[in-house]
Amino acid sequence: MRETIPAAHGHIPHAYAHFKEVFSEEGAARLPSHQAWDCAIDLLPNASPPWGRVYPLSLPEAKAMEDYIEAALAVGHIWPSTSPVAAGFFFVGKKDGGLRPCIDYRGLNTITISYPYPLPLVPAALEQLRGARFFMMLDLRSTYNLVRIHKGDEWKTAFHTTHGHYEYRVMPFSLTNAPVVFQALINGVFQDLLG
């Protein structure tokens, strides 16, 4: 039987005790520091993000929005904004019946310069697994929120609700370059292991 140390949920084997901070829920909720992989939002010349509409919310959505804003402010993922631009805030339903907050960045995305970073092709990735006997799975909490918005670009992520105007300090899920920024981060972390 393996010896373990107590953790918030379950136990961590002693061999991995020096990694206990990466399993911390408090650590996962913290505002990450600025890094080389921060998400810059470069705009086309002479372009300015639009002022989007405020979407009407049902009573359950309004409550969920208040909870989301309160939690995001508490951990520093967003802050109040005075940006001259704003995208709309709304919800989509999740399979489990919950609500997923969404920001309508379509206007911003159309004027954002796309990064030419290659995303992996699923067939090629599966081919690399042929003959493998051991596999590893990672489940990262709020993955894109592990990446900061580049200093000075936060105003471009501004969004508004019926209760206020805010901007992101971490990378939200609906930015056009979010997948490639996160893929570059993952490739950098695992560069010694990638074939």
UniProtKB/TrEMBL annotation:
Chain ranges of the Reverse transcriptase domain: 93-193
E.C. numbers: 3.1.26.4
PANTHER family: RIBONUCLEASE H, TRANSPOSON TY3-I GAG-POL POLYPROTEIN
Signal peptide: none
Organism in which the protein naturally occurs: Hemibagrus guttatus
Gene3D superfamilies: 3.30.70.270, HIV Type 1 Reverse Transcriptase, subunit A, domain 1 (3.10.10.10)
Record protein name field: ribonuclease H
Protein family (similarity comment): Belongs to the beta type-B retroviral polymerase family. HERV class-II K(HML-2) pol subfamily.
Matching Pfam families: RVT_1
Leading EC class: hydrolase
One GO MF term: RNA-DNA hybrid ribonuclease activity
Superkingdom of origin: Eukaryota
